[in-house]
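---------- Forwarded message ----------

FYI, see the Bifunctional hydroxymethylpyrimidine kinase/phosphomethylpyrimidine kinase record below. Original note from H. follows.
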Amino acid sequence: MRTSAPELRPVSLTIAGSDSGGGAGIQADIKTMEARGAFATSVITSVTAQNTRGVRSAYTLLLEEIEAQYEAVVSDFDVRAVKTGMLAEAPVVERVTEWAADVDAPVVVDPVMIATSGDRLLEPAGEDAYEALIRESTLVTPNADEAAVLTDVRPVDAETAREAGEVLVDRGATAALVKGGHVEGESVRDVLVTGDDVEEFVHPRIATDATHGSGCTLSSAIAANLAQGESLKPAVERGVEFTERAVRYPLDVGAGSGSVHHLAELRERAARQPTAERVEAVVRAFVDADVGPLVPEVGMNVVGATPYAESVGETAAVEGRITRTLDGVHPNRGVRFGASSHVARFLLATRERDPSLRFAVNCRFDGEVEAALPALDGPVSEFERAEEPEDVKAEEGSTMGWGARRSFERVDGTPVAVVDRGEVGKEAIVKLLADDAETLRERTLSLLGAVAAGG
């Protein structure tokens, strides 16, 4: 018999409706809370028949059954945070308000009124009942449509979002996060209003219709963060980041638009070790083949991004790069995450155009290498630093993003190599790109062979 090894996790509670499609509601809440490190408990208020295309029917449970679920949870668990979602009818909102007033834990109120598909999820009388629940909330998280219903202020920009948030705080909420996903624009701006401050969280809008469950995911992530003792602003900021990744890498399920990926952050962490091992394998192959003729003066680096990488810290590379030695090439140190800046930033920028790209290496570029590039199995592109706009040059670290965009604009499809001809003080480089480590290895060795053969 083996000894058990129990783990202590903070308990969070979601009070919401069930989504048979799995992308929103209780299902989204539980996935998200668990992904953020909390143990998720639940009280189901309604059962909906829905999928990625819309809501077919909804049935509100008897109040007695809802109360029985709540009693069962709070009589046994030390609930550290509560999140509310679809409450459906006024009597349910009123009862949840009573619980929110009594519970010794932060309460995040997501005033679910209309599904992403446009289907109504709250009866009109329930809208009026929300005023009392808002007074008991630690945070209320309306989207633009919900904020307009609750405050008579329709958020269309940062200023009106702030005004709507201030109305909610004036009505008793400790804080309000007015979400910007339903406001048109190239960027999404979520505005956090407290009694003392206004904070904006801005990120580029993601070109996808698969946002089903994004509101549930955000409020649940914040609640899970609060359950673990985080203060409000960090809990919101990390919740926004978590949801942005969930939307960036949606799940292609169903015949509709799909669903946000509630476990994308977990999958990213799980992919780190395999990604590092693949980079290490490529480095060993380069050492064995002696890729010295391709190593630039600044050194070579092999970079691998996890499938969900959003930052340099989520890319694996050789610490100190690969350099030439008297007997071949040698990595200065081992592979670790965040070890590359230049090549990693370029790879991440190319993933904005083609998210399947995951591996890159920087190589020497001169006349011999240029003559050998046609040996590669795909289009070769380039960018000229002389064409870089002054405002891009002025922004530190932005050249790689600009260069990646230019390189994709100049060819059809995804380039397998991108030439940076450099400038004064900047060595000319060619970067090879690939979806997988084995292809990167093959492309690099193919280039090495073509150089050795004189193009």
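H. also flagged this: Residues 11-263 form a domain with the UDP-N-acetylmuramoyl-L-alanine:D-glutamate ligase fold (CATH 3.40.1190.20).
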